[in-house]
């Protein structure tokens, strides 16, 4: 792959189709599509915009490598970052993956971990963390019965076999013993996956894996972990074990929980940013405001704009409403703040700040339906601080009953440190709550 053509672009940037070095040929497009289907399991037409003369990646960042070509996609607005800024963006995306995708508290992670590593190394770090948390809470073991002949009387004698043994071999005992055994499918699978990646890594991440393997000293390994995976019963496992086992399986298969996919050896990495950004924002809101006495609800389903009074769908609900995040005071039914995360680029030169009309209409319809007069639209920003400072941009939309205040909050993707990100985000959202 060292002599492969490299095309670097941003999300939504149109790549001309042709045979020049700066263009992508129809054959190369076909190769990229094949790798895309293989690695992500998703249709390329959903994540690429096609025209007769161009192709544009959308709603994902990362890289896809195919024979003779590698396509690198950066977040919109990030193409012109310098080396240090690119490294910072990569570190912070890794932090978002761990906090949003793997359900870690934003207060328990350091955004400085693995600054020089790739996204797979961060996923392996997350796997090690999950396993250690799971085993700290509970070591999975099961009672296993085995029968042995020995000189020592341990367990329970087994008759009539013991009677026959006494005649043939006096001073020997045939006993049945019950012992706790860690070699069960869950542990075997996790140890086998760790063993595979142990030989594919080096440095700090390899040492992390070795620390986890020490905990599995009494566990067998399997040369075919996926066959062991089929034996696992998830209904008896804690959330930590479920997440660690599923992450281990996704890493083994070259993908990670639908948001991120790729080949560990082939250097392909794809992050589906709209989903990741939404889960990360939800994680931020939950970890910051739940301890302060707020109930935080993410993407609750089953509520609709209304039901048809007449026509072929009479008495049937229609137009489901699924806000990204709702906040309520603990123990209260009334929604006091609606938040919607948008993986889109703002434009400060526009009177509308570049916010799409349908996004504004959507959040206002949420407010009307849920009888809430405050909403927040949350956008990414390619810089170390929000363009609005610590307070959001706010617009008031008049209404006969009560005006609706819609605020815009930015999450700067080049944040300098974790504490600054959390403090500034809390200040902005708190202002929306209190205003």
Report on the architecture of this protein:
There is one protein chain. The chain has helices at residues 26-40, 44-47, 83-101, 119-137, 161-168, 185-198, 203-215, 225-229, 239-253, 273-289, 357-369, 418-434; strands at 5-10, 15-16, 48-50, 54-57, 61-66, 69-74, 142-150, 156-157, 173-181, 255-256, 260-261, 269-271, 294-298, 304-307, 317-320, 325-329, 335-341, 374-381, 393-397, 404-412. It is built from twelve helices and 20 strands. By secondary structure, the chain is an alpha+beta fold. The protein folds into four domains: 5-74, no CATH class; 117-139 and 184-269, no CATH class; 142-181, no CATH class; 273-434, tt1808, chain A (Alpha-Beta Complex). It starts with a strand and ends with a helix. The protein is globular and about 100 Å long.
Protein topology:
Blueprint (H helix, E strand, L loop, with lengths): L4 E6 L4 E2 L9 H15 L3 H4 E3 L3 E4 L3 E6 L2 E6 L8 H19 L17 H19 L4 E9 L5 E2 L3 H8 L4 E9 L3 H14 L4 H13 L9 H5 L9 H15 L1 E2 L3 E2 L7 E3 L1 H17 L4 E5 L5 E4 L9 E4 L4 E5 L5 E7 L15 H13 L4 E8 L11 E5 L6 E9 L5 H17 L1
Parallel strand pairs: 1-6, 17-18, 18-20
Antiparallel strand pairs: 2-4, 3-4, 5-6, 5-12, 7-9, 8-9, 10-11, 11-12, 13-16, 14-15, 16-17, 19-20
How would you summarize this macromolecular structure in one to three sentences?
Strands 1-6-5-12-11-10 form a 6-stranded mixed β-sheet, sandwiched between helices. It has a 6-stranded mixed β-sheet with strand order 13-16-17-18-20-19, with helices on both faces. It is built from 12 helices and 20 strands. A hairpin with a 5-residue loop joins β16 and β17.
